[in-house]
Design goal:
Number of strands: 3
Number of helices: 3
Helix content: 40-55%
Strand content: 15-25%
Largest sheet: 3 strands, antiparallel
Structural class: alpha+beta
Radius of gyration: 29 Å
Distance between the termini: 87 Å
């Protein structure tokens, strides 16, 4: 009798486990684009100043690319005031 109860319990557990395994509904997503800071800075004509509204990690991205481009001979001046970054291109590569 004990063997029958254990067998019945094991079948019950397997049935419950199979019931919970369902394919989840797909979630609605957004298409996200990655900003290309390097091309953005290179596209600024020499002597011009462009303003960018910063969101999230934009300042870190711009600053990292500025450092890398400085090593290649480009020169930029940054002026950050709150959420606005003013970038002036000083020298070509």
């Amino acid at each position: 009798m004990i063997i029958v109860i254990i067998f019945a319990l094991s079948l019950h557990c397997k049935y419950k486990y199979k019931q919970k395994m369902r394919t989840p509904k797909p979630k609605v997503g957004e298409v996200r684009t990655t900003p290309n800071y390097s091309q953005t800075l290179r596209s600024i004509p020499i002597g011009e100043t462009w303003e960018f509204t910063l969101a999230g990690a934009d300042y870190n991205g711009f600053h990292t690319v500025k450092t890398r481009l400085n090593k290649k001979g480009y020169r930029f001046e940054f002026d950050r005031r709150g959420d606005v970054l003013r970038v002036t291109r000083v020298k070509p590569a």
